[in-house]
Amino acid sequence: MNRLFGAKQTGPKPTLNGAISNIDTRVASIDTKLKALNGELSAYQEKLAKMREGPGKQAIKQKALKVLQKRKAYEAEKDKLESQVWNMEQAQSMQDNLKNVMTQVDAMKTTNKELRKQYGKIDIDKIERLQDDMADLMDVGNDIQESLSRGYDIPDDVDETELDAELEALGLEQELEQEMGGAVPGFLQDEVVPEFVDEPPQAEDKVKQVAG
Q1: What is the pTM of this model?
Q2: pLDDT in tens, 16-58
Q3: What is the DSSP letter of 186?
Q4: Nearest residue to 58 (alpha-carbon basis) of 77, 72, 42, 44
Q5: How many CB atoms are located within 10 Å of the residue 54 CB?
Q6: Can you spell out the DSSP letters for 2-50?
């Protein structure tokens, strides 16, 4: 059976890139042949331009025609190979795009699975309860701050008349103290005269004058 159909190939499978490379090599070889044929045609054309009509010129002309036929055949083959390369390059581009799409799809599937796994561990109800607890704690904190900032034993309403009278009394006390030379009035302190003092303090007369 192997003699009829050949042995089973065990080498690497052909790829588009490999096929394109092979065809590019063939195209390059054809370009080399075309360059040589163009050189021959140029040489024949120069000879024909210098020769007169006759058997010799006809012989050169026949050779030039054969070279021209070869060039046309190679050019046709080159066109076919370039068309094949173009088609395979398009197929390769589609294959690469498909690979990129599949890679993106696989990445999205993996990301979706991970997101479901992570978000599945989150309890929305617990988060809502936590938010409510935080709001309650903020309210309690505000109440505590308001309570601590409250004054003690300070009347809300103070009579301005009483304040004016008290302020006036303080002013009289300061004037009296200045007249007495800075001493404290007798009616504001308990007078205690030491036993070793023979005469009463001179400031007493001034106090009497002020009182009178």
Answers
A1: 0.45
A2: 788 888 999 999 999 999 999 889 888 888 887 887 888 887 8
A3: G
A4: 44
A5: 8
A6: HHHH-PPP-SPPP-HHHHHHHHHHHHHHHHHHHHHHHHHHHHHHHHHHH
